[in-house]
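Sequence, structure tokens quoted for completeness.
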Amino acid sequence: MGNTDFDLNASQPVGLVYDDVVQENPILKGFPVFDVDQIEILRGPQGTLFGRNSPAGIIKFESAKPTNAFEGYANLGYGNYNAANVEAAINVPLDKSWAARFSIQNQSRDDRVTNPRSTGTKELEGYNDLAARFQLQYKTSDFSALANVHGRQLNGNATLFRAGIIQKGTNELVKGFRYSSYPTDGINDQELKSYGANLRLRWDISDVSFFSITAYDRSEIYSRADVDGGFGAGPGSGPTFIPFPAETADGIPNLRQFTQEVRVQSNTKDPFQWIAGFYFFDEKLQVDSFNYDTFAPGNPQNGYAVQHQAAVSRAVFGSVNYAFTDAFKVRGGIRYTKDKKDFDAERQVSPFGAGPTPLYTTNPRDNNVSWDIGANYAADKETNFFGRIATGYRATSIQGRVLFGDGISQAKPEKSTSYEVGIKRDLFNNRARFTLTAYHYDTKDLQLTAGSGAVNQNQLVNANKATGQGLEFEAQANLSREFKATLGVSYNDTEIKDRNLVVQSCGAPCTVLNNRVPGTTSAVFINGNDLPRAPRYVGNFSLKYTTPIGEGEFYAYTDWAYKDKYNMFLYRAVEYTAKSLLEGGLRVGYKWGDGKYEIAGYARNITDRRQIIAAIDFNNLTGILNEPRAYGAQFKYNFQ
């Protein structure tokens, strides 16, 4: 369910749950992943247990919790461009009931791109990202309390928008392109801070368990970039013709999120199991948008707009599981959600002299019932059949990007229904396993972002309907005592179904493939298009070799990921069709001392494949690239 929304108030179809807490805003979703105990991926709509804004699934990260053993680790890494990674954790039991765990990660890299001009930011793509987490746990036989305090500080650069790097009439890089050179006259800077705390309580009383999860998170970000991706404007601009300068910034000076979940569930081995709960979400958000005069000394600010949003969501939910037999089990659930948002936006200073706008406001109110039902049948010890029907929901989305336009945009709620059936089977005396799944979904009023284009303005729209269907195949196998392999392949067919849906195509000179609206120069119909950023084929493969050497174990591991071509925007254009991409990684290492020590060398994107994965379409043929090859070495020490 792809989309192209980069707004700081974007609603996304995949939810993120970190330590049992939903991270709603895109900035909160970027918290680093370290000292992790478990990663869980739930595909398809998860509206029953996880609520709104999860129609495509949920990713769950669970941090390693305090234990009753004194233990920890230190992981040190160093790579090209002076990339350094330090990750460490220490677990300290305080007594038989109390334990604490502190973990930290610091990642940094020197600048790897240089601006050869006398104006603009000189060195780019370096960063320093520091994150830490402290947990304190109290645990008895029938009660546990886990407190979690965490924070992050990032200093670096915004994504580089590179002017004119796409050859007109193709989706290839221009000849002579150099990754390390970025001639620009704009300022590029990015700073982010976030911190938060949560408290998870559990009581086990007889055959019932009670849970309470309370969380509070705050964040702020400022991100500024030269969006036109080059220097100058009009004749003499470069490295390609730039019709007008675009140097902007967006920021969140204040994001506050508070959540409270209370649930109760059965705690028996009976055939009937159940769970019920209440969820509360409260968010306060301010988004600032700035424009800068690139050609004035010091690149001063000459435009400003502000947005405010207060969002509240309440939900009650319940789910049941029943085992008719040891082989046949069913489950089902339902959730009622009530959402409200109070939103305003205004432009106070216009970069084009258009003057301020009035205060635009909107106050949408939504309610929704999500449900799911599924079944699993074990035909024998090796074979399981499964099926599921589920619904998903995204609440009203709002964007107030009024710096360059007059008026806010709003997309009404979208609702999805998903169907899936599949088989899981163990093979060769449990040495191999595969899963094959077929799925289909229908989405009504799909929320999409019609971005930039000829009008240089983002606009939220609803497509009457969108569909998707496909097949997913996954397999794991112990090929021998030394070799283990995994394989994943999926086919995904998506389609926008709305004969009247029209968007603006590129403002830059590009080769549009959609039919234009009669009497217009840039408006096009997008009915029948694939969803943006939704490749037809996706694949991954890994192979691991291990063998004892001396007092330890040598290993070599390679993994490869493939994704098919996709549309970068809602419309189709030759230049804005991302090429298929195959990237591979390699890790070679040695463990000894019963796993106490490990040393390894690694490489990512080992073929150094460089291509355009995203673009800016309102000014010139501006592209955004994938990450170049990275390599280095790591040393890990475990103690207890």
Observations:
- The CA atoms of residues 303 and 351 lie 5 Å apart.
